[in-house]
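SAMPLE LOG
Freezer: B-3
Tube label: C17
Construct: single chain, 420 aa
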Amino acid sequence: MAKTIQAIRGMNDILPNQTPAWQYVEGILRQLAAAYTYQEIRMPVVESTELFKRSIGEVTDIVEKEMYTFDDRNGDSLTLRPEGTAVCVRAGNEHGLLYNQTQRLWYMGPMFRHERPQKGRYRQFHQFGLEAFGMEGPDIDAEVILFSARLLNELGLGQHVELQLNSLASNEARAAYRAALREFLRSHEEALDEDSKRRLDTNVLRVLDSKSPQTQALLVNAPKLSDYWDDASRAHFSGLTQRLDHAGVRYVLNERLVRGLDYYNRTVFEWVTTDLGAQGTVLAGGRYDGLVEQLGGKPTAAVGFAMGMERIVLLLEALEQLPAAASLDLYVLGADEQAELMALSVAEQIRDMAPWLSVQNHSGSQALKKKLQKADKSGAERALVIFADEQGLRFELKHLRERELAAVEFNDINQLTSYL
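STRUCTURE (predicted):
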């Protein structure tokens, strides 16, 4: 017997009993994107490796350790996309969507990172991304955050998440802060965890979100990024918080929030929860004004966020916030062999008459008692039994969930909707 082939570790099937939860979330996402006038863009899952080295940064964990990279038959280095923002910028540059224009775009689909699989973190995972281009002011930052707040409220998660905000300021201000932080950490290097020691020379800001309690205790006395904000960045952040205050969005200032990708500047934010254990971030983003130019385009302001679909579905399940699964409305079956011949065409008539109904046909020839048992087991609200004789067709509508209701008999299928 041949050995069964299984899915690659960390790349999971989404089974029929799980897809209704995904469809529920996807439906809300599409509805809100349309309400905010964001347009969908669909992008390849395979890109040039250079795209991610230039955008994410060669000394990030993603590029150093996590990307699925391979050479194709032409010897070109290709990578399965680990995130969507750089791909969206590449597409915008390539197709002339960004220069001297404003764009509100969204996308949804799989991303790939080779990391240790655990609950809420997989090697193939799915993201919804929202990106806004060509707008410099804090009002678009606020709109993107308000979109995310509305989304989480629509999903019933508003009371289970916290918005954390920070500003990474300008490149110049951040460079000055980076130097001050590195100097401070060098003087306490023996107290740092190994990852933080490695990041001193590669990406020192990432030390701020170290998971080591000892490192976090040391950072209490570290220089603060807000002390290095330039006037323009301070005014931008003030404009953002004023708008969020007017909109009634609660937030917490977190000066250690830096995000894991090199391209961010000014506004960064995360929605976090304590209901998923260690994987607490469910949605995150910020401003990345330099990325379009970095990838070959003209200077263009940009801001956006990405949301992990798996974590949202897990959180909805944990909090029992998913809607009840849709029930089957009608199970159609023929009482005997002659009626079975007519069952499919009758079901098609019903779908024409009442397209809002979910209708399932019985398949296979069995005794009527067995067919009714299958109808009951299907979870259908009602069963339509078809009888055929020399007089023509006759129908009996049985109530499977409210058994105290009497069955209804009729001779014209067009009468069905009056009994539903």
